[in-house]
Amino acid sequence: MAEQINPWSSVPKVNIERLFEDFGIEQFEPQKEKIQNLPAFMRRNIIAGHRGYDAISDAIVNKKPFHVLTGFMPSGHPHFGHLMVMKEVVWHINQGGQGFISMADREAHAVRGLSWEKCDEYAREYMECLYALGFKGEIYSQRRNNSLKDLAFEAATKINFSELSAIYGFGADTELAHAVSVSMQVADILYPQLSAGVAPTVVPVGIDQDPHIRLTRDVTNSLRMFLIEDRGTHISIRAKNASPEAISAVAKRFVGSKKYEGHIDLPEKIGLSVSEVDTIVRKTEQELGGFGFVLPSSTYHSFLMGLSGGKMSSSVPESLVWFDDEAPSVKKKIMGAVTGGRQTLDEQKKLGGEPDKCSIYQLNKFHMEDDDKELNEMCRACKAGELMCGTCKKQTLEKVLNFLKDFKEKRDEVSHMIEW
User: Fold this and answer.
1) Are 56 and 176 in contact (CB under 8 A)?
2) pLDDT tens track for 93-105
């Protein structure tokens, strides 16, 4: 039986290899061959897997329209644990994607019990960080977006509690508002196509958010009027939620088609691929008042290790560095961080360190060291027993403090852009 994932947990227990096997998440490695000038988070395998990213890499390479969306639950101050997904969104925008950010205030209110005022306060901090990193696009509040709420209602018509129980483990004691927040998550993922036109949409998230992606892909299929099937000898357009009038309208789009009570068959000689047929059918669905959404795509990045071990989480303050942390606090956290060093200096020199178990090395791998050669040298010197943990921590501390200083200046420069 596939394990359940709690996407709201501060310390999710996730076996990535098991998730790939159980839920059909694809390895990201083959995608790297399609894209030029890979960013560090792709080069260094920080992005571990994906769903449907072929549509996005194709859009990037061939300069086709696509969207990029992710969401932040404004339930606390932003920190280094949020930086990766922010970078991924901005990178995709720079590759031609249209950017969208959901401030999941309804989710924060329902799941974490925050007041609307507090949600707005935290949301402004996230927005400031995003703009400082170069974000361009639409940032919206769930509770203020009426089109989103209407879409969430439509999505909810395709979701039942047995699905929520199977995917999230919801039971009789689950608050209704929590369940409603799930349909809002689905609407968030589909919203770019509602707002800016049907196109592939990539959602960069941590691996623990895969339940939302899986549910949304199921709902996307359920919202379609038609299902396109390649039967080998012909292409069949199967009616799902389509009226007889809609079936007739689609049949008229294909010369030589054969219309039946619940489906339309296209002979092989029609000369169209399944993808081409699907595009025509989607357009017809939209003309008839349907959505015709494309299945959303996703990327999954691994978690940034917390300074105290485990996942970097706001529920464990010593595990992270806030973007507004003062220098003395930063120094205390970095210098006291868990490393992959040995028990004694002699052992370190003799046996070498274990960078894969080191929160300081991981911080450099994710954010603090842009140069791959320098990162590889850090890893080599650690394993060879040439680089001591104290020295590495001091070097990393200097990088972190410089980053925070520069980031604060950039945030101040863009603060006027926030309208909330």
Assistant:
1) no
2) 999 999 999 999 9
Are the CB atoms for 50 and 298 separated by under 8 Å? Answer: yes
CA distance 411 to 134: 10
What residue has token string 């639950």? 73
Token pair of 72 as six digits: 């932040």
Using CA atoms, how far residue 140 sits from 70, 100, 126, 162, 297, in Å, is 11, 8, 12, 30, 21
375-417 pLDDT, tens digit per residue, is 999 999 999 999 999 999 999 999 999 999 999 999 999 999 9
Query: CA–CA separation, 332 vs 45, rounded Å?
Result: 30
What pLDDT is attached to residue 269? 75
E-strand stretches of 240-327: 258-259, 263-267, 297-301
Neighbour order of strands in the sheet with 67-72 = 26-27, 47-51, 297-301, 201-206, 67-72, 98-103, 137-141
Q: How confident is the model at residue 363 (pLDDT cuts 50, 70, 90)?
A: very high
What is the side-by-side order of every strand in the sheet holding 258-259?
Answer: 226-230, 234-239, 263-267, 258-259
